[in-house]
Input
Amino acid sequence: MGFGTLVGSRAFMADEKANEQGKELYAHAGLALYWAQCFEKSLENLLYLCARVSGNSLTLEELEALDRELEKQTLGRLLADARKLVTFGADAEELLGFALGRRNFLVHRFFKAHADDAMTSAGRELMIAELIEIQKCFQTADLPASVGCKALGKILGISDEMIEHDLQQLKSDWIGWNSG
Output
């Protein structure tokens, strides 16, 4: 094996490591976005359920229109609307506000802020670590809305068993769709 082959092999290995690290970086970015959307959906669900238990008699068309309208809302708007209907504790309020800031940073500035970091292995590791923290932030911020949804669901007669049944049905449908 000549010197050029050895140098070329090392360069390939370095590129391969960078490539794998890049895949991991973007996988964590995707997962952080996923958790941000779960957080958003929990707030949408909370507002939807609040409308259902409000005592107003909403028609199916009105509920579908509300669902479409909630889907269009920004996370900031969803939080503002939820705060009009639900009183969150001080710790939850702080967490929700922090999560909103992290979501906006992730979507609008994360890769710009880390442009130089993306060029080095150590920088990419730093980015991955930050993305993992952002994921945890969204998972934690999701809890107040999820707890509220569960409580409102119980008022509407939605049991844990009903939710589990629907979840199993969705999984079954997905497996059937994905395998066929």
Remarks:
- The radius of gyration is 22 Å.
- Residues 36 and 154 are 25 Å apart (CA to CA).
- The chain is about 85% helix and 0% strand.
- The helical segments are 3-53, 60-72, 75-85, 90-108, 110-113, 121-155, 160-179.
